[in-house]
Design a protein that fits this description.
single chain, alpha/beta, 2-enoyl-CoA Hydratase, Chain A, domain 1, 2 domains, 16 helices, lipid metabolism, transferase, fatty acid biosynthesis
């Protein structure tokens, strides 16, 4: 055994013995070294010292627990005087963002399966292809013939990859527009369901005119001569969501979000730190309540307690009731009044006036 090792062992023994109440020579040095210990480790040191103390002599068969407690109290002055600050509360906006992304949350396809019958799908955009991230078709909703349009995220891993996690290509938006024009031709109301982070930002999508496809949908949806209702069931992200949401009535589920950018992307840009996503979520005003206050949406659809994922059937029933209510109101309006109300609705979004 080297002299350095022997010295280290002796110092350690002195520290343990000091913690247990045995004060050998050089205790001042031991006490000084004890100050360098983290206070949370002291009970462990004391306990180890007590075990070592038992092995020293049978004469120490005293109440070691009491001795350890007394020594711990005596050492309380070594505890930190600047405790760590309490963590900041999580913003409600971020809690709702996580609920909107919950893996068990019903997706647009789940709502379609619960609310519609006799679904007959429309395939292809008649320009390039058939986008698996977008589904369109004619169906019946409580006895009323309607056109249903929704983006699809997928459920299994393979399906999610195939559908690009719900981010449509330009073919998807052109297919949706084709379905809208078909509905207008036959006088059928249009119901859209939205749950996407945004449109596909890939190079191929840009080369095939992603921006043009979204812009064309915005323009044409404003002109449709049939009632239109858009529902944001989870995430409503950027222009990709807006391309399906220029409607007479825009609904949001209670814990859905509607924003120009994701909280993570916003935090990366504004604070150069994606971990600030909760702060960004609050700043974006993306919750249903915020969107309603800004006149970006018309109605908030309540969810079962805990979120839609806790009772998907009940969530679908509650959404169906609201859809039916708004659809009946819109069907009673003349076409010209419908168009004028739609125009004024989007002209007046987020306008605030102060009394002067």
């Amino acid at each position: 055994m080297t002299s350095a090792t022997s010295l280290s062992i002796r110092k350690r023994s002195r520290m343990l013995m000091f913690a247990a109440g045995v004060f050998p020579s050089g205790c001042a040095v031991v006490k000084m070294r004890t100050r360098s210990l983290d206070f949370w480790a002291l009970p462990v040191v004391c306990q180890c010292g007590a075990r070592g103390r038992r092995g020293l002599s049978a004469g120490f068969a005293a109440d070691f627990d009491r001795q350890i407690l007394l020594q711990s109290e005596a050492m309380s002055d070594y505890a930190p005087t600047n405790p760590a600050p309490a963590s900041e509360p999580v913003p409600e906006a971020w809690i709702k963002t996580e609920l909107a992304r919950h893996p068990q949350r019903p997706d647009p396809l789940a709502f379609m399966e619960a609310l519609f019958t006799d679904y007959s799908e429309v395939h292809g955009d008649r320009v390039y292809g058939d986008d698996p991230a977008m589904t369109c078709g004619m169906a019946r909703f409580r006895g009323q013939e309607v056109m249903v349009i929704a983006n699809l995220k997928g459920r299994s891993t393979r399906e999610k990859v195939q559908r690009r996690f719900g981010m449509p290509d330009p073919e998807g938006y052109r297919k949706a527009l084709r379905a809208m024009k078909l509905a207008e031709k036959f006088g059928r109301p249009i119901l859209t369901f939205i749950d996407l982070m945004g449109a596909n930002p890939g190079l191929g999508a840009e080369e095939r005119g992603q921006g043009e496809a979204i812009a064309r949908n915005l323009r044409e949806m404003a002109r449709l001569r049939v009632p239109t209702i858009a529902t944001i069931t989870g995430e409503g992200g950027s222009g990709g969501a807006l391309a399906l949401a220029v409607a007479d009535r825009v609904l949001m589920l209670q814990t859905a979000i509607y924003s120009v950018i994701s909280p993570e992307a916003c935090a990366s840009i504004m604070w150069r730190d994606a971990s600030q996503r909760a702060k960004a979520a609050a700043a974006l005003k993306a919750t249903a309540e915020d969107a309603k206050a800004l006149a970006c949406i018309d109605d908030i659809v309540p969810e079962p307690e805990g979120g839609a994922h806790t009772d998907a059937a009940r969530a679908a029933e509650m959404l169906g009731d609201r859809l039916h209510l708004h659809l009946e109101e819109l069907k009673a309006l003349p076409v010209e009044q419908l168009l004028e109300q739609r125009y004024q609705k989007f002209r007046n979004i987020a306008q605030f006036y102060t009394a002067g």
